[in-house]
Design goal:
Oligomer: single chain
Largest sheet: none
Order of helices and strands: HHHHHHHHHHHHHHHHHHHHH
Distance between the termini: 64 Å
Radius of gyration: 25 Å
Helix content: 55-70%
């Protein structure tokens, strides 16, 4: 029989970032979000990292149990089971390749990169053309060692064998100009090949290149907004959460599709419920402004907070301003506003974040500090920008001892 051996990326890690926020969301929403995230990630990643298993006469039980353990994210059990299979006396060379390669992937998913490389190199020594092994070595070279030229070599070898995941990996390096000269035309061609091989994670970046948001037209590549939207829809059909987000942006802006703000909010929500931070940020913004939904500062704060706790800096800045300027006392929190804005400014300076910090300081009654920060924010704005007048009005508020309020 033939079965697919699934090695999923850290499903639990994807949910850990939102566990501390259970008190913010209604229980039914939280439970649904966790359920959807597990279900969708399992379905997507099950199509992206797989290996066809050939009939095994020896150690079949270990391989079958390892397949089940991998599908459930029990990578330590995968290692134990495949170690047992490797120690069998009558294990074939083909079985050795399968066991070493998949145990190497399991080690990678546990961040045991040294052991992962040992196993993957052992598999490659037995079969230098083993695509799954080459692909994982390429991933380690690119994402762990940052040796992009080596990653290109691994991906190129597997790409020559028409292996979708490596076509995707190589496309990404061409698009970013890592290990090779940046070439969006080549990236587009490789993403297409990966998509044709039903590597579903290629659908969104392929759509982005058609849309031109990631440099397509500027680099001389094709731009077709309607084709881009179709790829986002295909991504959604395949269970790729990010597809909902990019379709939502297109719907909100009327790019490649008729503008439909209500549908855009619905798409943002579907991605947000599955833990997608930019979608959570966008949904928070919709609730804060009443765009496509009834204005609700409490829900805005909840969705911003979910994105902020995943490190989304835009959400942190927006949440800080909401906490500082919200007219509802149950939402306002000047101290947290200052903390969030200060954390963002520690790594990057922007006028919008300084504006949020100033609002938080004013909320705490620290008007002198708010004035100083606001003046700096105005200096950092382009002269004559649309924000300049609004910022000067807020500066006048702080100078008169008043807080900013929506």
């Amino acid at each position: 029989m033939a079965a697919r051996f699934l090695l999923f990326k850290r499903l639990l890690r994807g949910t850990n970032a939102i566990l501390p926020l259970i008190s913010l969301l209604p229980v039914r929403i939280f439970k649904y979000m966790i359920y959807k995230q597990f279900k969708t990630l399992a379905r997507v990643l099950g199509k992206t990292l797989w290996l066809l298993w050939l009939p095994f006469a020896v150690s079949a039980s270990e391989f079958d149990e390892a397949q089940l353990a991998a599908s459930e994210g029990r990578y330590r059990d995968v290692i134990t089971l495949l170690t047992g299979a490797l120690s069998a006396e009558d294990v074939s060379e083909l079985q050795l390749v399968v066991a070493y390669s998949n145990r190497g992937i399991a080690y990678s998913l546990l961040n045991a990169f040294g052991l992962a490389k040992q196993d993957l190199n052992a598999a490659l020594a037995l079969d230098p053309a083993h695509s799954l092994t080459l692909n994982q070595l390429g991933n380690l070279a690119a994402n762990v060692d940052h040796d992009y030229e080596l990653a290109v070599k691994f991906f190129e070898t597997a790409t020559a064998a028409n292996f979708g995941p490596s076509q995707f990996g190589l496309a990404r390096l061409y698009h970013l100009g890592l290990g090779v000269e940046r070439d969006d035309e080549q990236a587009l061609a490789l993403y297409r090949l990966a998509a044709e091989n039903q590597y579903v994670l290629a659908y969104v970046p392929l759509g982005q290149l058609y849309l031109g948001r990631t440099g397509g037209p500027q680099a001389g590549g094709p731009q077709d907004d309607s084709i881009a939207v179709q790829w986002f829809i295909e991504a959604i059909k395949a269970g790729v959460v990010e597809g909902h987000y990019h379709l939502a942006v297109a719907l909100e802006q009327g790019v490649g599709v008729a503008r439909d703000v209500a549908n855009a909010v619905s798409q943002y929500r579907q991605a947000a419920m599955q833990g997608h931070a930019p979608a959570q940020n966008a949904l928070g913004y919709a609730y804060s402004r009443g765009v496509g939904v009834l204005q609700d500062y409490q829900l805005a704060a909840q969705w911003y907070r979910l994105a902020a706790d995943q490190g989304d800096r835009s959400a942190m800045t927006r949440l800080a301003l909401l906490l500082a300027g919200c007219p509802r006392t149950t939402v306002c929190n000047g101290e947290l506003a200052v903390t969030l804005a200060t954390e963002v400014l520690a790594t990057e300076s922007s006028a919008s974040t300084q504006n949020s910090l100033a609002a938080g300081l004013a909320r705490l009654g620290k008007f002198d500090e708010a004035i100083a920060v606001m003046r700096q924010a105005i200096l950092d704005l382009p002269i004559g920008s649309t924000d300049e007048l609004a910022y000067r009005n807020r500066l006048a508020l702080y100078q008169s001892g008043e807080v900013y309020q929506f």
